[in-house]
Amino acid sequence: MGAVSTPLIDEAGDIFRELGYEVERDGEELRATRKWRVVHVTTAEPENAREDGTLRCFVAPAERAQRVHRELHESTPPYDWAVVSVTDTGYEVLHPDPDVLPAP
Would 102 be classed as within a structural domain? Predict the structure, then answer.
């Protein structure tokens, strides 16, 4: 019998629940809510992701996460973003450089 793997979007939901967010499905994405903050969570490539919302998190396997981070950093998406790099043993959050985020 082969190994069973959890779909990446389900892993993303587990990560955000662990961080204290309420998570609900929003089409092919997730909507993670905590207090006033709503984060749109996707496993899509940046060029294929929806642009609604002001906070967006891209969840990607570790071998793809650095590329997604670089693509977002080089572009100017209309939202604040972060990338979650997922491995077999956990995850790491890749934040944009401070100069990428708009001033409050």
Answer: no
